[in-house]
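Hi, here's the filled form for the chain we discussed.

Project: internal
Contact: R.S.
Residues: 561
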Amino acid sequence: MESSVESSWWVLPLTLIPAISGQQQQHDQSTAAAIATSFVYLAILACLAWAAKSLLYWAHPGGPAWGRRYWTSPCAKTAPAPAPIPGPRGLPVVGSLGLMSGLAHSTLAAEAARTPGAKRLMALSLGPVPAVVTAHPDVAKEILDNPAFADRPVNHAAYGLMFHRSIGFAEHGPYWRALRRVASAHLFAPRQVDAFAPYRARVGEDVVAALRHAGGGVVNVRGVLRRASLYYIMRFVFGKEYDVSSDSGKKDQGEVEELLEMVHEGYELLGKENWCDYFPGLAGFDPQGVGARCAELMPRVNRFVHGIIDEHRGKAMIAGGEGEAQPLDFVDILLSLQESEGLADADIAAVLWEMIFRGTDAMAVLMEWTMARLVLHPGVQANVHKELDEVVGKSSHVTESAVLSLPYLQALLKEALRVHPPGPLLSWRHRAMWDTYVDGHLVPAGTTAMVNQWAMSRDPEVWAEPLEFRPERFLPGGEAGPGVSVLGSDGRLVPFGSGRRSCPGKNLAMTTVTAWMATLMHEFEWMPAKTGAPVDMSEVLRLSCEMATPLQVRVRPRRGV
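And the returned structure, exactly as it came back:
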C-alpha cells in the first residue's frame, strides 16, 4: 500500500499544471489588454495635446503659422509681447489657404477691409507658411525695396518646369546675381531693345495686315495678340522669324501651334495654387497632378529649346544684306557669356524658356485689357485717335520716335495697368530671407510677402474715383500727372514690381506694347462684335489676371491701304 502511494507522488503536481497555466494565460492576456489600453490612452492624450496645440496656434491673429512662430519663439516668454499683425485665423492647420483660390486678389482685399488695420499689412497662414499682404503704397514699396525680400518661396511647379534656374524664380545668391547682371547688361540693355525696333514695326504691320484680312468680320483679339507676341519674342530670344498672318498650311504653323500649346500648359501649371508648396510631404502623392503634368511637358520643352541652342552653336553669327550684322538674339548672347558666367546648357535653356513663357503672356494680357477698355469707352478711343492724327497724321505711319510725343496714349496704358494689373498680386511672391521689420511689425524669416496691386487700384484713399477709367489722371493737371512711372518708382503703380526682384524685361514690354498700340489705334477703329453688345469685363486669375471671356471685336480701317 505504501509503495503504491509513494510511487504515484508525482501525479498531484501534474494535476495542478492546467490550473497554473490557465492563470498565467489570464495574466498575460490582462497584461496585453492593459498595454493596449495604455497605448489607446496615450494616443488619445497625444491627439488631445495636438488638438490643443493646434487650437492654441490657430487662436493667434493670422492663424496657425503665426501662432506657432509666436509660441515657439523667445518673444513668447518676454513681456510685453510685440504687437501682432492683424489678420484672419482661417482654419486650424490649413489656415487661410482657401482665400488663395479663385480671384484671390479680390478675396484678400475683402478680408483686409473686414479686419481693422489690415489694409496696411495683413497676416495670414498658408498652411504652415506665414504670409503677409499689403494693399498700401508705402508698405508695398517698403517690402519690394527691402533686400530681405529678394528671395522667392518654394514653388514645385517652378522646379518641375526648370524655372528655379531662371531669372524670375532662381534662389537669391551668386547664381541669381549673375543672371540679373547678364539681363541688365546684355539681354535687356537699352541698345538691345533699340536694335529690335525694325522687327517690332514689322510685326506690328503684320498684325495690321491680318486684321485687314478679316474684312470687317469678328476678330478674336486674344488669339491675334498672343500669336504676335510669341512671334516677336521668338525673334528676340531665338532669332526665328514667323509671319503673323500665316495660314494653317504654312510649314512653320505646326511648330508655332506646338509652342503655343507648351506655353499655355506651363502658364496653367505655374498659376495653379499647389498645396505641395505648403505641405512638402504631399509632393510624393501629387494630389493635384501638377508634378505629373510638369514631367510630361518638360521633355517637349527640352527638345525644342536645346534644339535651337544646338542650331546656334553650329553656325556663325548671321549677317544681313551687304555685310550689316543683324542684332544678336538671346541665344547668341548667352552662348557668348557661357564660359565667363559659368552657365550650363540647362541654365541657358531655363532662361530662354522663361523669356518665351513670360514675354508671350505679359504683353498680350495688357493689350487685350486695353483694347477692351477702348471698346467700352468710345470717348477715350476718340481722344487717342485725335492725338494720333495731330502728331502722326493720317497719311503717315507711326514710328517709335513719334510715340514719345503721344502723352494721351501713354496715359491710357498707365490707366490700363492701374485698373487691370496683369499680376494683381505681382504674380511671383517674395520670401523673407531673415527676420525683418515691415511697417513697424516683426516679420520672421521664411514669411511669404505679397502686394495686392489690384486692391490699391480700387482704394479711394489712393486714387480719386478709383473705379472710373480715366487716363486724364496721368496727364498734366491730373491727380497723378505724367511723372508717375509704371517701372517701380511709385508705390501706387508697381505692375512690374520694384527693387531687386522687379521684372527685368519691363522696358522691352512697355516699348513694344506702346509701339503696337499706337499702330493698331492709328489704323483702326475698334467696335463691339455686335452693335450695342456689352463687353464682358469679368476676370479669371491664373498666373496673370485675364479676361474671363476672350475679347471679340470688329475693326474698321481709318486709313487707306
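Let me know if anything looks off before we file it.
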